[in-house]
Amino acid sequence: MPIRVTVWNEGRHEKKNATVAEIYPNGMHEAIASHLRKAGGLEIRTAVLDDAEHGLSEEVLSNTDVFTWWGHLAHKDVDDRIVDRVHERVLAGAGIVVLHSGHMSKIFRKLMGTTCNLKWREEKNEREILWVTRPGHRIVAGIDDFFILPREEMYGEFFDVPEPQCTFLISSFGGGEVFRSGCTWTRGAGKVVYFRPGHETFPTYHDKNVLRVIENAIRWAAPNEKLPSIAFGNRKLGWMDSK
Amino acid sequence: MPIRVTVWNEGRHEKKNATVAEIYPNGMHEAIASHLRKAGGLEIRTAVLDDAEHGLSEEVLSNTDVFTWWGHLAHKDVDDRIVDRVHERVLAGAGIVVLHSGHMSKIFRKLMGTTCNLKWREEKNEREILWVTRPGHRIVAGIDDFFILPREEMYGEFFDVPEPQCTFLISSFGGGEVFRSGCTWTRGAGKVVYFRPGHETFPTYHDKNVLRVIENAIRWAAPNEKLPSIAFGNRKLGWMDSK
Amino acid sequence: MPIRVTVWNEGRHEKKNATVAEIYPNGMHEAIASHLRKAGGLEIRTAVLDDAEHGLSEEVLSNTDVFTWWGHLAHKDVDDRIVDRVHERVLAGAGIVVLHSGHMSKIFRKLMGTTCNLKWREEKNEREILWVTRPGHRIVAGIDDFFILPREEMYGEFFDVPEPQCTFLISSFGGGEVFRSGCTWTRGAGKVVYFRPGHETFPTYHDKNVLRVIENAIRWAAPNEKLPSIAFGNRKLGWMDSK
Amino acid sequence: MPIRVTVWNEGRHEKKNATVAEIYPNGMHEAIASHLRKAGGLEIRTAVLDDAEHGLSEEVLSNTDVFTWWGHLAHKDVDDRIVDRVHERVLAGAGIVVLHSGHMSKIFRKLMGTTCNLKWREEKNEREILWVTRPGHRIVAGIDDFFILPREEMYGEFFDVPEPQCTFLISSFGGGEVFRSGCTWTRGAGKVVYFRPGHETFPTYHDKNVLRVIENAIRWAAPNEKLPSIAFGNRKLGWMDSK
Q1: Does the pLDDT of residue B243 top 80, yes or no?
Q2: Is the ipTM of this complex over 0.95?
Q3: Would you call C133 exposed, middle or buried from its count of C-beta atoms within 10 A (0-12, 13-18, 19+)?
Q4: Is the dihedral of CA A53, A59, A60, A66 positive or negative?
């Protein structure tokens, strides 16, 4: 059975900013999605903020195994009811791969329980080096012990997230800052990944290592074939014996 | 410097239910607070839901190092703005010790990012055995390798919380259920403890082991003398050199 | 590519004890292996203590992706050099699923860094109930929210292991004890699973839920197709630029 | 009650190397110990490899609450029986703060269960910046959101240790490498800290931030006043009722 992926993007920078539009003429979601469509075993759908229900109807959600999430300027425009809907779907077992400035999205903050804030800097030519801190992890399969992005936005610690269950990448930047760029957590029956790179004014989502990590993260975060039925509530003494 | 503790209680069962009122004539908060007042190095205040601002004004919060939190029927009556206020205070470095049915409180769910739901059963005579799963932890100082509560409500797994940073107690119940009864997490600069026992119709908050764990948990969750100043936001290249 | 599994067993109880021999006429390893052979995508080999090099030659190791390990009375008879060999293979990326009394094996203790000791009791008719504490985890795929083994040996907390990265099962026993029966850790590039049930005098390795968990654990612990090359040692300034 | 600290040092570089002897005329242990002696509530003892029993007799151990450990060239000269003795003491509840090249010591590797290996480079003028990744943690009390060491040896990822329970510091180096420089783990009833800085040819143990972190780490790793009695072994049905 293929993993059903919904690549979600705010999708507004690409319409407003000529630089971004030039790098991502069909949107960042399409750069990601077009890579994923060529990979085996994935069924790809895209959705953007300005779609009806942000492209995240109940029907889409019940047919999504893993979400990827990119947002930046318009986090507040995401409807709380739809955030709750995605939240429920993740707790029920879906995966979510939060990208770059998605760290301040409502859905990520709701899953983390913290501010998810950080330090940042935008420079034209700042180099990011991403170091693998958990070789052998599914998400870094095929990645060497580091990789370099010649130009990226800086994100620096303290990154206000709960202690990750696994930190698989740590970055350094030209200014001397560091950042936990690849992290995983479990929430309910679902898996959460944060992956840092992806500033809109750089061609990051055309980088083969970045695309590989996203693809791997999707495969890692995918639920089991059948979502678990999680039972809560009142139980009489001896209830187990009747099963 | 003493640790400044705010013992928070919903405080309604004690007014409505004769059994509860008999066990806790001054409220569960007073049973807990009166123990803590006799312990050294703690400065105790109590607050209940029906106080103005639930007893959790900005001024109270800025003078609170650790909260304890008991709620049950009226979680929804807690004002969202006050929940946000407590949440911010915890992320800034305060501790919070969530008790029993507080697992479904707005503040705990907001900190955890999950439903925090579970299985449960109320019986007149069900025994809970609490097993220490991290001897040497500050929170179980003075506790033997287990302790018994002759009558308690059952809480059973799956307990929908993020994987704890430390699980220090696991309970078994008469019906064969188990529960992670003592857990810790970090959120921002603050520490979160969940401690299970404390159903309102049993004299649990008069039990010396239970009181000891609560007292220990407060001491463990207390912040450093000075809260850290956490800096987020834009940083120019070379900003560190000017410090 | 199939996952190459080496099912390792001490294999002596089955020769010395008539009860055990009756339940497992071909050894516990064969009970496990015969289930795994019927599952898809696995390539199964067995090995026992009394084989040359305990059946764990360099060649076997370099063709093993995941080990399962059952030992009890003869932990001390396992050659330290072979323990070191398995240890290296796990750190390089292989998985290991340690079963029941394997908790005191040299390899498990070396991987954990602790005594791995516990409380125990052998009764003819003690019921174990295993509760799922991480629904959605690959290892409990297809398992309901609990399962029951009508007769098992009791293992009780404190179980002296490092805080697990994930606790997926917790057991309760007839005597009121509890135990973290399913746990995972990461060591180097490899994955470690502990799964409790399997006392030799009970038909535990004929139970479908137990076999399912073992099979799932193997799939979860399997390495990526290619083991990572992990580089340590001296690096000159600018070494990265030459890559 | 004061925390009883044993500051352990290999103590050979200081005798063989003029540069080291000039920076640390009484040994690195004395640089650390002299700071700790001025701090309140600590009782300080030092010990070096060439002392009888490496200065770690049974009597010293039973009067040590927290060890600090620096070693480098002579890890293999540390007697295995003494390593076992320290290991037991830590599992029983003592703390250990492993410093710099102590990452390859027998005791640290035994506690971790991994190779503890890493990348490294020695340059005359390489700057280390240490970033706080868990503000509010006891170990970084009084530390700003980063601090700088103008000259240090580089240590780079992958650092082969189990996923830390808490990562409180991450370093960046002039060459672009990163390293998890401050980490904690629990082993048995004891606490383990790794703190990176401290190459022998630089005056790192005269730096006030470094000394502060070491002092804080000792206070954090200190056991409860009374070590827990941890009970293992056979238990009859109903054993709890007789307590």
Answers
A1: no
A2: yes
A3: buried
A4: positive
How would you classify the pairing of strands C233-234 and D119-121?
parallel
Instruction: Quick: pLDDT tens for B163-204.
Output: 999 999 999 999 999 999 999 999 999 999 999 999 999 999
Q: What domain range is A15 assigned to?
A: 3-227
Report yes or no on A241 lying in a domain: no
The CATH number that applies at residue D201 is: 3.40.50.880
Least confident of B28-42, B226-240, C95-109, D203-217: B226-240
Taking the C-alpha atoms of residue C182 and residue C198, their distance in angstroms, rounded to an integer, is 13
Q: Using alpha carbons, select from C155, C154, C157, C156 the residue that is nearest to residue C125.
A: C154
Verify whether the Cβ–Cβ distance D188 to C233 is below 8 Å.
no
Q: Do B131 and C159 touch (CB under 8 A)?
A: no
Q: CA B16 → CA A32, B24, B74, B200, distances in Å?
A: 58, 12, 13, 12
Nearest CB among D93, D135, D186 relative to B228 is that of: D135
Helical residues (DSSP H) of C98-172, grouped into ranges: 106-112
Alpha-helix runs per DSSP H in A99-174: 106-112
Cα distance from B180 to chain C (closest Cα, Å)? 9
Taking the Cβ of residue C125 and every Cβ of chain D, the question of whether any pair is shorter than 8 Å is answered with no
Distances in whole angstroms, Cα of residue B134 to Cα of each of B131, C72, C155, D91: 9, 25, 16, 11
Q: Output the CA angle C58-C62-C63, nearest 5 degrees.
A: 120
Q: What is the pLDDT of residue D243?
A: 63
Among the partner residues C163, C185, C236, nearest to D186 by beta-carbon distance: C163
Q: What is the mean pLDDT of residues C102-129?
A: 97
Tell whether B167 is covered by a domain: no
Q: Per the domain annotation, does C147 fall within a domain?
A: no
Maximal CA-CA distance, chain B: 66
Distance CA A19, CA A13 (A): 9
* Nearest CB neighbour to D114, from listed C91, C126, C238: C91
Interface residue of B89, B146, B184, B224 to substitute, partner D, most D CBs within 10 Å: B224
The interaxial angle of helices B28-38 and B208-221, nearest 10 deg, is: 70
- The H or E element spanning position B186 is strand B178-187
The answer for B 156-175 residues in CB contact with C (under 8 A) is: 156-159, 163, 165-167, 170-173
Cβ contact (<8 Å) for B134 and C159? no
Q: How many domains does chain C have?
A: 1
Q: Does the distance separating the beta carbons of B166 and D136 come in below 8 Å?
A: no
pTM > 0.80: yes
User: Is B110 within 8 Å of B157 (Cβ atoms)?
Assistant: no
Rounded CA separation D138/D131 (Å): 15
- The answer to whether D219 and D210 are in contact (CB under 8 A) is no
Which of A136, A191, A224 is opposite residue C228, by nearest beta carbon?
A136
Q: Taking phi first (over 0 means left), then psi (-120 to 50 degrees means alpha), and beta for anything else, what does residue D54 get?
A: left
Is C107 inside any structural domain? yes
C185: chain B residues, CB-CB within 8 Å: none
Q: Which chains touch D (3 or more CB pairs under 8 A)?
A: A, B, C
Q: What confidence tier does C241 reach under pLDDT thresholds 50, 70, 90?
A: confident
Q: Does residue A243 surpass a pLDDT of 70?
A: no
Of A135, A141, A188, the CB nearest to C230: A135
**Side chain identity at residue C20, one-letter code:** V
Mark yes or no for CB contact C180/B170 under 8 Å. Answer: yes
The contacts of residue A26 (CB under 8 Å, 6+ apart) are none
Q: Is D88 on the interface with B (CB under 8 A)?
A: no
C241 touches chain D (CB under 8 A): no
The answer to whether A226 contacts chain C (CB < 8 Å) is yes
Whether residue D104 lies within 8 A of chain B, CB to CB, comes out as no
d(CA B52, CA A197): 46
